[in-house]
């Protein structure tokens, strides 16, 4: 039993004596208080030194932080005037009682370096600096990837001691914890620290209550890497697809070019698939963006197939139906202000009338006139077929121009929506 809570010092020794300290060391399993009805107050603060990684698939956040704890050890007090003016000493952390403060979200073994000593001043106030490599669970949302902001909680509390034994408090204001973390943050990688928020709370489990402090660490992804490697190349491929509409619709080069572009985009998605996060509870917006871009490339190729079919139909079918001609060449052409019209009126052959040729004196003139009439009929038939074919060609050009403008409107609207969603989320 302690007759006095104050440590004793020998006459010639600077600091508490070994014997008095050994008595304190023997009481390590017991909470250092003179009255067990009074809880021990533990004040904590921490500094985030690095954001080591975020695993979206496993929903894990890995950080490296320095935890600092203060508490009052009522048996480690002495009078500096009686102990050679010594006001502070360091003691082995294994030899004295330490609070069992843990991070509740911890899901892996702490592999960080252990701190072997604690500092104790003459008033009994103990300071314990502890390095932690925290592998914690976090509900990570990836919908707005790569412009996502993650809000992960770090809950500090005692593992066994309830509020009747250990009470927690803040050693520093939350704003100071944030400033220290921003000042000493060593990593300049994919993630940046935005803010830290914290508040004390009581954890209830059955009839017992534990004092806890929950900190919310808000980090934001630096999107430059993904913008350069994913979004910009995809935008270039879509731009090339838009430009390909300027190839002649009746040329087979357009279809082959679009098929090659579609194949290239598919290979691009396969190569960049490892950069995209994957979880079982959602799909990132950029994945939807890539899927829609791929669907647009397929629709672009389908549009080329339809226009090619219309352009070649004139060689296989007869004249254009009247309602098609009036709707496409009339209504749709005026709707899209299509003015590149072609004059299909066949040239008129200026031949002599049959009566004038047959009334000649010589018989061979009648024979020539008959042959010329046959040639004229053949030419008129070919010119009529050519005019019908050219009408189908003009219908194809009008439809191609209409579909191209609708394609541009859809791509423009889609791009504006995607960019707006990303910008609003990133700046919120």
Automatic annotation (TrEMBL):
<dbReference type="GO" id="GO:0004888">
    <property type="term" value="F:transmembrane signaling receptor activity"/>
</dbReference>
<keyword id="KW-1015">Disulfide bond</keyword>
<keyword id="KW-0812">Transmembrane</keyword>
<keyword id="KW-0675">Receptor</keyword>
<keyword id="KW-1003">Cell membrane</keyword>
<comment type="subunit">
    <text>Forms homopentameric as well as heteropentameric serotonin-activated cation-selective channel complexes with HTR3B or HTR3C or HTR3D or HTR3E. The homomeric complex is functional but exhibits low conductance with modified voltage dependence, and decreased agonist and antagonist affinity. Heteropentameric complexes display properties which resemble that of neuronal serotonin-activated channels in vivo. Interacts with RIC3.</text>
</comment>
<keyword id="KW-0325">Glycoprotein</keyword>
<dbReference type="InterPro" id="IPR018000">
    <property type="entry name" value="Neurotransmitter_ion_chnl_CS"/>
</dbReference>
<dbReference type="InterPro" id="IPR006201">
    <property type="entry name" value="Neur_channel"/>
</dbReference>
<feature type="transmembrane region" description="Helical">
    <location>
        <begin position="224"/>
        <end position="247"/>
    </location>
</feature>
<dbReference type="InterPro" id="IPR006029">
    <property type="entry name" value="Neurotrans-gated_channel_TM"/>
</dbReference>
<comment type="similarity">
    <text>Belongs to the ligand-gated ion channel (TC 1.A.9) family. 5-hydroxytryptamine receptor (TC 1.A.9.2) subfamily. HTR3A sub-subfamily.</text>
</comment>
<dbReference type="InterPro" id="IPR049944">
    <property type="entry name" value="LGIC_TM_5-HT3"/>
</dbReference>
<feature type="transmembrane region" description="Helical">
    <location>
        <begin position="259"/>
        <end position="276"/>
    </location>
</feature>
<dbReference type="InterPro" id="IPR038050">
    <property type="entry name" value="Neuro_actylchol_rec"/>
</dbReference>
<comment type="function">
    <text>Forms serotonin (5-hydroxytryptamine/5-HT3)-activated cation-selective channel complexes, which when activated cause fast, depolarizing responses in neurons.</text>
</comment>
<keyword id="KW-0628">Postsynaptic cell membrane</keyword>
<dbReference type="GO" id="GO:0045211">
    <property type="term" value="C:postsynaptic membrane"/>
</dbReference>
<dbReference type="Pfam" id="PF02932">
    <property type="entry name" value="Neur_chan_memb"/>
</dbReference>
<dbReference type="InterPro" id="IPR036719">
    <property type="entry name" value="Neuro-gated_channel_TM_sf"/>
</dbReference>
<feature type="transmembrane region" description="Helical">
    <location>
        <begin position="288"/>
        <end position="311"/>
    </location>
</feature>
<feature type="domain" description="Neurotransmitter-gated ion-channel transmembrane">
    <location>
        <begin position="230"/>
        <end position="341"/>
    </location>
</feature>
<keyword id="KW-1133">Transmembrane helix</keyword>
<keyword id="KW-0770">Synapse</keyword>
<keyword id="KW-0472">Membrane</keyword>
<keyword id="KW-0732">Signal</keyword>
<dbReference type="InterPro" id="IPR036734">
    <property type="entry name" value="Neur_chan_lig-bd_sf"/>
</dbReference>
<keyword id="KW-0406">Ion transport</keyword>
<keyword id="KW-0407">Ion channel</keyword>
<dbReference type="InterPro" id="IPR006202">
    <property type="entry name" value="Neur_chan_lig-bd"/>
</dbReference>
<dbReference type="Pfam" id="PF02931">
    <property type="entry name" value="Neur_chan_LBD"/>
</dbReference>
<dbReference type="GO" id="GO:0005230">
    <property type="term" value="F:extracellular ligand-gated monoatomic ion channel activity"/>
</dbReference>
<dbReference type="InterPro" id="IPR008132">
    <property type="entry name" value="5HT3_rcpt"/>
</dbReference>
<feature type="transmembrane region" description="Helical">
    <location>
        <begin position="406"/>
        <end position="427"/>
    </location>
</feature>
<feature type="domain" description="Neurotransmitter-gated ion-channel ligand-binding">
    <location>
        <begin position="28"/>
        <end position="223"/>
    </location>
</feature>
<protein>
    <recommendedName>
        <fullName>5-hydroxytryptamine receptor 3A</fullName>
    </recommendedName>
</protein>
<keyword id="KW-1071">Ligand-gated ion channel</keyword>
<keyword id="KW-0813">Transport</keyword>
């Amino acid at each position: 039993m302690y007759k006095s809570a104050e440590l004793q010092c020998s006459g010639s020794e600077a600091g508490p004596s070994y014997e008095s300290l050994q008595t304190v060391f023997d009481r390590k399993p017991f909470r250092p208080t003179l009255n067990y009805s009074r809880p021990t107050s533990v004040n904590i603060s921490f500094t985030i030194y690095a954001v080591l990684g975020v695993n979206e698939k496993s929903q894990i956040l890995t950080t490296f932080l320095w935890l600092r704890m203060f508490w009052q050890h009522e048996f480690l007090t002495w009078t500096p005037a009686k102990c050679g003016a010594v006001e502070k000493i360091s003691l082995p952390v294994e030899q004295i009682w330490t609070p069992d403060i843990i991070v509740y979200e911890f899901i892996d073994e702490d592999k960080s370096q252990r701190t072997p000593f604690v500092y104790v001043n003459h008033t009994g106030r103990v300071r314990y600096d502890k390095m932690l490599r925290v592998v914690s669970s976090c509900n990570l949302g990836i919908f707005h990837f790569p412009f996502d902001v993650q809000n992960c909680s770090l809950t500090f509390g005692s593992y066994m001691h309830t509020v009747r034994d250990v009470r927690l408090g803040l050693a520093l204001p939350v704003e100071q914890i944030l400033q220290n973390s921003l000042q000493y943050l060593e990593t300049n990688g994919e993630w940046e620290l935005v803010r830290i928020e914290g508040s004390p709370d009581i954890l209830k489990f059955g009839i017992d209550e534990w004092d806890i402090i929950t900190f919310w660490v808000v980090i934001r992804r630096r999107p430059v890497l993904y913008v350069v490697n994913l979004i910009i190349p995809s935008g270039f491929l879509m731009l090339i697809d838009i430009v390909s509409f300027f190839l002649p619709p009746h040329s087979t080069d357009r279809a082959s070019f679009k098929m090659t572009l579609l194949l290239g985009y598919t290979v691009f998605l396969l190569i960049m698939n490892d950069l995209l996060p994957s979880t079982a509870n959602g799909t990132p917006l950029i994945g939807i963006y890539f899927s829609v871009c791929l669907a647009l490339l397929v629709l672009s190729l389908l549009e080329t197939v339809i226009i090619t079919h219309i352009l070649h139909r004139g060689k296989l079918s007869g004249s254009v139906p009247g309602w098609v001609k009036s709707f496409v060449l009339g209504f749709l052409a005026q709707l899209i202000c299509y003015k590149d019209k072609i004059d299909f009126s066949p040239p008129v052959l200026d031949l002599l009338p049959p009566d004038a040729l047959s009334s000649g004196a010589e018989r061979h003139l009648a024979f020539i006139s008959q042959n010329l009439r046959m040639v004229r009929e053949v030419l008129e038939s070919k010119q009529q077929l050519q005019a019908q074919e050219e009408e189908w060609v003009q219908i194809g050009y009008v439809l191609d121009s209409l579909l191209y403008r609708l394609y541009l409107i859809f791509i423009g609207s889609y791009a504006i929506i995607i960019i707006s969603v990303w910008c609003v989320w990133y700046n919120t």
